[in-house]
């Protein structure tokens, strides 16, 4: 089954909450913190592509909010060869093989999605993904 990237990302966040009650409580409390608009930026690599999100070290300083320029960034490097210090991205090796990679602190008291680079052993062991 294929799930579109925004939904995949949000479902990965929801895995932190085993009970609907917990998710509902977190959502009500977190909503008071605010939010920010996101524009995923697609980076095509030699062996796949990734969606860069705000906070990733490869995310452009001024993303093209109006879609007036080239839609995709490109590189000859592979996914593994790209810088990996500040990560906030979804990597795609194929349409059905996606990995969320996040190691930055989320803004506005959000939760990071469960990801490959999570440093929380409880999350790694209990992932529902």
Structural class: alpha+beta
Which shape, going by the Cα principal axes? globular
The biggest beta sheet is recorded as: 5 strands, mixed
Number of strands: 5
Q: Helices and strands, in N-to-C order?
A: HHEEEEEH
Strand order of the largest sheet: 3-1-2-4-5
Which runs of at least 5 residues are low in confidence (pLDDT < 50)?
Answer: 118-129
Q: Can you give the mean pLDDT? A: 85
End-to-end CA span = 13 Å
Number of helices: 3
Fraction of residues in helix: 10-25%
* Rg for CA atoms: 15 Å
Beta fraction: 15-25%
Secondary structure elements and pairings:
Elements: H1 5-14, H2 20-30, E1 41-44, E2 49-52, E3 72-74, E4 88-94, E5 97-102, H3 121-126
Parallel strand pairs: 1-3
Antiparallel strand pairs: 1-2, 2-4, 4-5
Structural description of this entry:
This protein has 129 residues and is an alpha+beta fold. It contains three helices and five strands; from the N terminus they run H-H-E-E-E-E-E-H. It has a five-stranded mixed β-sheet with strand order 3-1-2-4-5, with helices on one face. It is globular, with a radius of gyration of 15 Å. Mean pLDDT is 85; it is low at 118-129.
Provide a short characterization of the protein structure:
The protein has 129 residues and is of the alpha+beta class. The chain contains three helices and five strands, in the order H-H-E-E-E-E-E-H.
List keywords for this structure.
129 residues, 21% helix, single chain, five-stranded mixed beta sheet, alpha+beta, disordered C terminus
């Amino acid at each position: 089954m294929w799930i579109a990237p925004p939904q995949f990302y949000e479902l990965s966040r929801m895995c932190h909450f085993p009970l609907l009650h917990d998710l509902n409580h977190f959502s009500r409390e977190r909503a008071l913190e605010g939010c920010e608009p996101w524009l995923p930026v697609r980076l095509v690599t030699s062996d796949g592509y990734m969606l860069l999100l705000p906070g990733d070290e490869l995310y452009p300083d001024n993303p093209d909010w109006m879609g007036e320029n080239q839609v995709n960034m490109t590189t000859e490097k592979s996914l593994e060869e790209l810088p990996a210090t500040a990560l906030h991205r979804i990597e795609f090796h194929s349409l059905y093989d996606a990995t969320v990679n996040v190691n930055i602190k989320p803004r506005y008291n959000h939760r990071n999605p469960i990801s490959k680079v999570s440093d929380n052993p409880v999350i790694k062991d209990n992932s529902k993904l």
